[in-house]
Each structure stands twice: as structure tokens, then as C-alpha cells.
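Aim 2, interim progress. The first record below pairs a target sequence with its C-alpha cells.
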Amino acid sequence: MGKITLEQAALWCGGKIDSKYKDITFFGANNDSRKLEQGQLFVALQGVRDGHDFIPAALEKGAAAVLCTHCDGDYPAIVVEDTRVALGEIARGERQRLGIKVVGITGSVGKSTTKEMVACVLGTTYRVAKTPENHNNDIGMPMAILSIPEDTEIAVLEMGMNHFGEISYLTSIARPDLAVITNIGTVHVEHLGSIEGILRAKLEILEGMVSDSTVIFNGDNGLLWNLRGTLGKHTVYFGVQNPECDVLGTEVTPKDGQLNFRVKDFSVMLPLEGEHYVPDALAAIAVGLELQVKPEKIRESLAGFRNMAGRQEIYDKNGFTIIQDCYNAGPESMAAALAVLGSRTGRRMAVLGDMLELGVCADAEHYKIGRVAAKNADLLLAYGPTSQRMLYGAITGGMSQNSARAFTDREKLVEALKLLAKPGDTILFKGSAGMRMKQVLDMFLEETK
């Protein structure tokens, strides 16, 4: 059943409608006619393909109405000058109408996992909605807001960016009551110029925050820690290394594929491998405590936590142990994934795609990751335009030249992997989303049935 009328949506975005359709309602929005659900608003975006070409398909699929720049037939439509901007305005109006609490999450790495953990923790006490999959940009996040059920009490919204102004735009729509910054790393430095530029871009999340809001920062990150007392907001720090953090993780013990640690006066078990997940959990715990979730509920929720598909899934297939971490990659997350590989027994292979959007830092960061790979893997297959730098790093880090190879052709990479891999090996697949490492994994498993 729809919840927003075309009349209301048109009022929010300044669009025009045919008065006979003013009472038509929609629930949710989608810009992909193939994935559109019945009763949603179809958003005709101008991209590589003109979304207006898919209006007939969207209506046939069951779209309640269309958001477009021109209407060429008799169907429910909101006509606007710019559909992307109008989508944001409608989402802004809906967020205000709902009157719910919003937790906004951003950071260089770990924001999706943190978003999932926050939603998991809060879900024990509140009715929670969250951004699905990677809906964290100027199209995905507004669509997520328009899909929030009426009975929701708290929405957990992820905000991504790779340029200045993007989070500023998202936070103006979401108006967070609590904002989490997981960390400040080197991802997107190509577009933001420096680590300080990345910090400024992430801090844009504060611009849209409501009054009496709370910020929750990683206190192990020097740039974020140095902001304490300067923001004029209630600030909570979480961390593992900095003993002055408000929510401090101690006694971190990896064992049997899980993590055990303590926070304040209670213990936590997390069914994940890799100590890099502890800060994500601490951020979720900090949010939970701020919103009066009881410690026993926090413990229970995290003990049953399951991460999103594509983020460090570990499973056995075709005689191999696969570590599938293909969603995205930066220097920090790549090093963390290699540490998980290094904790494994038996022969360990790292199949690593390039880390994108590092700009002038690309050569140096790939070289460093090569050296990290030398400490955690027995064989390295590097893939992409910068793979040779990773190769050099591995060799100077102590890996033999016969154990490290670089590729720029996906088929040749898979061919080499098929020849080198042996049953019983643990194989890590990781790289930036643009390197399509999941395709490499799928091709390898298909050929080794």
C-alpha cells in the first residue's frame, strides 16, 4: 500500500502533476525498471541510458507513478526539471514527515559492516530500517528513505562519497540525530587531495545534524581524536588502542573463527574473523548505549551477527577454503584481509586486484600492500594496471620471485590460478569494486569443479 501521494511529493519537489492523479500513492522508489516493485515510484534518470526510454517497461511492471522531466502519455507522473534533485527533495520531505531518529554512518572503510551491526544492535529494542546493500549515494540513500515503513522508530543510513559536497548533500536530506565516523583512511584520496581533505569531506555529515545531536568517532584515529571538545556536540569515542576512549574494547582474543573482547563491564563474542571488525562492533555498541539498549541485548545481537554478502565470506568450495572479500578495497581493508589470510594454516594464496582512486598515492600504497602480502601469503597473484608495484613490494618484503606474479588480463590470471591452486589451499580474493574480483572468483570456481 502506498504512503505518499503524488500531490504531496510534487509539493515537496516543486513538480507538476495532472490533478486527476493527485491522490495516487506510492511506497518506495527505483530507477531500474528491471528491479522495480509494484507500487513504487519509477525515477527516470539521465545516465548512460535515458531513463525515460524505460517508462513503458516500468508501468508494465507495476510502477504507481513516474518521476520524469517530460510526460509523453496519459499516466501518473510528477514532471520536474531534474529528476535526481527532485528525488532528493521528496526524500527530504519524507524524512521530516516520518519524524523518526536517524543514525548516519560514514567513514573510509567499514561503514557498511558498521551500518549492519548498528541495525542489528538497535533491532533488539526498536523497529529499525536501514539502507540496503550499497544504497549510500545521492540516488540510493533517498530511495532507501522512501522505502522506510511507517512504523519505523530508527533509520540507520550509510553515506558514501568520493568528492567534496556529496556527504553535505546526503546529510541535508537525512538530518541525522547521531553520526558515526568509522575512521579516516586513504580511500578516495585521488579526488580529495590529502588525508586532511578526506577528513573535511567526512565531517560534512555534521552539517545536516539536528540540534542536541551526538557524534560517535573512532578514538584510535588521530585526526578524529584531535577534534575532541571542538565540535560543540556531545561526542563519544570508541576504540581499542586509545585508553581514553569512552567505549574501549579490551582483552581482544581471536579464537576458533570468532572474536572475544570486553567493553566496560560486559563481554562480547563476535562470530567473525579478523580484529579489524572490533572497532566496527564498538561503534555499534556506542550507538546502542547512547540509545539505551541494554548490554545483554547488545551481547545477544552481536553474537548472532551475520555480515552482508561479499564482505569476508569464508567457506569451503571445490576443495579450497575461499575468503571472498570482493565488495571493495583500500589500503586499510586490504591489510586487514591479508591478516585474516595470514592467520590460516596450510598454504595461503592472495589474489588481489588493484585498489582504485588512490591518485598519486597509488604506487606507494600498492607497494606497501605487496610487503604486507609477503608476510601473510605464500603466493601472490596481483591483478590490474598497478599490479607490478604490488609485485615489487612482495619481493622486497621477502617473497620469492617464483611465488609472486602480476597480471593485467583477467583470463590469464584465472588460468594461472587454476594451475597453481591445490586442494587444501586457502585463497583470498579482494580488490576494488571496479576490478570485479567476484568475476575472477566465479571463473576460477567454475573451472575447478
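The second target in this work package is listed in the same format:
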Amino acid sequence: MPVSTPTHHDRHGHYPQASSVADFEHNLVAVRARIATACRRVGRDPSEVRLLPVSKTKPEACLRLAYAAGCRLFGENKVQEAFGKWEAMQDLTDLHWSVIGHLQTNKAKLVARFAREFQALDSLRVAEALDQRLQAEGRALDVFVQINTSGEASKYGLAPEDASTFIRQLPAFSALRVRGLMTLALFSAEAERVRRCFVLLRDLRERLRQNAPSGIALDELSMGMSGDFEIAIEEGATVVRVGQAIFGARLLSDSHYWPATSSTDAAQPS
């Protein structure tokens, strides 16, 4: 596979703040062009890759500009922040929300109310809490199982060797529609170390597919963020979570968002 694609450190801090609809339109065109170029390198159709704009830490006004530029789905890490934005933006009836960060069981009731998908499922306790709340709401939720492909203790997600046992238990939760796997790659300037995380997730998905329970779809691979999504696409990503390349660099450095420990509602750079 190509090794010339950028990684986190190459691009962080170089994204100007998007402050108008035109800025967002420009950034979306640029990101989609990067997606298309990465797809061409490996003979993929760009339509196979879904762009998830990550709006965490950004105020409602910015989200409304992004919406005006065409965004209809936003990814958020912190549930309470996302829920507040959802409440404030219910006038936009075709706007949907993806929760992409770690979830405590006591926040499941919020996710069950507003989210279209949840990309960080790594606990049966969370699965049970979500299922109960969703049943009460009369809703279903698309979910991705989060895998810790870097082996870092600071990251959430199941160990790859635990994924099969975990997934075999998910049919018990009928309100959860399992769509695929998600990972956060190693935060590194070395492209090949980042790539190994994506290869691991893709290979794990192929193994899990061989004996996945009935009704469990593992079609999706959510991997890749602003600095490394080209590598992820080269290795099979079907969803890329892109924040800074669309919204602009965040006010604080990536080290603030990247968890030093597995703290509550830890955020990741996107």
C-alpha cells in the first residue's frame, strides 16, 4: 500500500477556522477530494466511504453554518454536549447525530433519545443499558463495536481477542443494530505504525464475519480522522470521522483531547 499519505502530526494546527458557509463548502470539497484520491490509489469507489463530520467542541453557530453547507450528520464525543446541541437544533428536522465517544451507562438514556448511531460500544453493561432505554423509547440504534487496535491502556475499546465472544452476545439486545467495527489508530507521525492499526481492524472484521451470529452485520469499518483518513481508506475504511479538516483546528492541542488515562467521557482528536 502507499506510504506517502499524511499522518496526525503532518496536518494538525494547519487548518484555519471555518467561519462562513463558503468556508465549510470549501473544506468539504477539499476533504471529499482527498477521499476520492485515496480511493483511486487502491481502486475503490469513493461512494463506498461515508464522511462523518465531527463537530465536538464547536458551538451551535458553527454547526448551523456546516448544515447550510450540506452536512446532515454530526459526530460528537461527549453525550451531554451532543444532547444540548440536539435540543437547540431540533428545528433542523433532517439533521442526525452520531455519538463516537466513550459512554457511561447513566448517559444511555440520553443517547437513546436522540442519536442515530453509536460508534463506541465496548461493554455489555452499556449494551444492556442502551437496549433498555431504546425499548422504552420505541427506537433502534445503529452501533459499531470499538476495538483497541493500538494496545494502548489510555484508549477505550475491546482487545481484538475479546471481540468474537462479545459480538456473539449482542443478538440479545434487539434494539441494537450492529453495523461494524470502529477504532482509533495510534497517535503517531509514523505512517506505517498508524497503518498497522487499520490493517488489524480490517483483518479482524474478516475473521469475525466467518462466524458472526445471525442478524449481526459487520459491513462497516469506521477508522481514520483528519490526519490519517487516507491511510484508513487505503486499508478499507467505510466511515471516516473528520473534524478539524472541516471545522478548523481546535483551540487546544491534540494532547488535550487525547486521553492520558481512561477518564470519563474522554475525547479523541478527529
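The CA atoms of residues 123 and 145 lie 9 Å apart. This observation will shape the mutagenesis plan for the next reporting period.
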